[in-house]
Request: fold
Amino acid sequence: MFWFGLIGLLSVVFILFYLYGTRTFSYWAKRGVRHDAPVPIFGTAKRQFLKEISFADIYAEMYQKYPNERFVGYYLMTTPVLILRDPDLVKHVLVSDFNYFSSRNVFPLDKHPEPLLKNLIMCEGDLWKFLRQRMTPAFTTGKLKAMFPLIVARAEKLQRVAGEAAASGAEVDVRDLMARYTTDFIGACGFGIDTDTLSDKNNMFRKLGHRIFVRGRRDMVVTILKFSMPSLMTSFHFFPPEVEHLMMTLVKTIMKERNYKHSGRNDYIDTILELKEQGKMVGESLVHKKADGTPCIAEIEMDDEILVAQVFMFFAAGFETSSAVTSYTLHELAHHPDHQRRCQEEIDSVLARHDNKVSYEALKEMKFLDMCFSEAMRIFPSIGFLQRMCVKPYTIPGTDITVDPGVNVIVPVKALHLDPQYFPDPEEFRPERFHPDNVSAINKYTYLPFGTGPRACIGERLGYMQSLAGLAALLSQFSVAPSISTLRKPIIDTKVLGVQSVKGGLPLTLIARKKTQ
Ligand code: HEM
Ligand SMILES: *[C@@H]1O[C@H](CO)[C@@H](O)[C@H](O)[C@H]1NC(C)=O
Reply:
């Protein structure tokens, strides 16, 4: 009797679990949207949750598999996802119909109340709207120029560290080298402290960066459980407890040291403290409406958690993105010595006019370097896909298909960048695609390394200039060449979340240049 009871109970649990794990799976079929067949619990996302393929690559695969569709259905576990293929629809979702897609739905705060998730990248609704408004002035050209001396100092240190590597003759993982440059920049500009990651390989920040982006077993289990039963999992946080603790204590300590006042250092902590000084955030709500349809007035207190989350955001958003793409630029230049030489001649002549200093103004003149950088971001975009979530019922233009709030929408950036229809011979590194005479021919909804619309990258200019500064500093003194373990086509690391990363880094040889003058 007992065994029958137990087996019966287990069967019921199993059936309930099955029904729960498949409850949404008719969503796309009902709407006549083509898609792969989902499996219980994982949906169509089994391979990415088991880390067999990266998110960017699975979306690219779907893009390629359904060449005649304007959009393709997908199930991220049980969440219905729409993968866009048509650049016109991309424009609708990211720009013209943004009000329907103002959320990114990484981990909505109402389901996952976690301090670090209050950052601008991940938050939504009024908190996002108010923060975005208040933070936009922090990313103007003026602020960027004020921060520039801090960037130049890091670039000069990068030259010294690269010099040691070149002298030793050993191959250098430029991915690691550029990550240390970026981390150093984030330490100095983001946190207002000298981190010295460039010389010290085991630096805390470098480890922290690694811990945030490389998903371990703990993170994978927590992620799956949090996705499938959020309300039972609130005491487990998406970000590892050690990361959260370190961030909270570190940033609070720095703010206290400055007495919660602008220090004159012009770094990002100063900016954050200015946000705090402006007091409570008040404005028209993005989500709540009065009976007559006009928006309610909402207010949000600028508490310590929100401030810390914005510093964390600087780290999370600036770290892997720019090191991924600067190192990939070096990788391509190593394989294209002609383009590399042209970059170096340009850098030499521009710097000669600027007192041999990598300044903001000097970088603006390095047009060919800029083209190479843009082309590297096309082949290897740091963020291989963009994500939005539908927040009110939306009828897809040109169809009678309506998607509901909660449906995620994916713009498969990597697939668009590598579609021969938009970029002939897409695998080939051709900086001339981005020559000013050619750039206007590019449909801007097929080239999205920084996204676009109201939720585009807020740090685009900072990321761009910081990356160019590192590249110019390095190439002015060194050349790069393939070394023994260089792979022409690097292999994507599927363990890294969000940002595209390569297995085994990007090993190259650094050779000190003999300058003619
Ligand atoms: C080369 C470097 C960088 C690249 C390639 C990059 C790329 C991106 C991309 C693709 C997005 C998503 C845009 C979208 O969904 O439409 C994004 C968002 C964002 N990035 Fe960057 N980024 C870089 C550097 C930075 C830096 C240095 C910062 C800040 C300090 C930053 C802050 C942000 C923020 C806050 C968002 C979210 C904006 C919002 O949701 O309102 N990024 N970035
Ligand atoms: C524009 O692109 C075409 C085709 O790739 C190339 O032949 C041409 O040289 C480019 N123009 C410039 C000014 O680089």
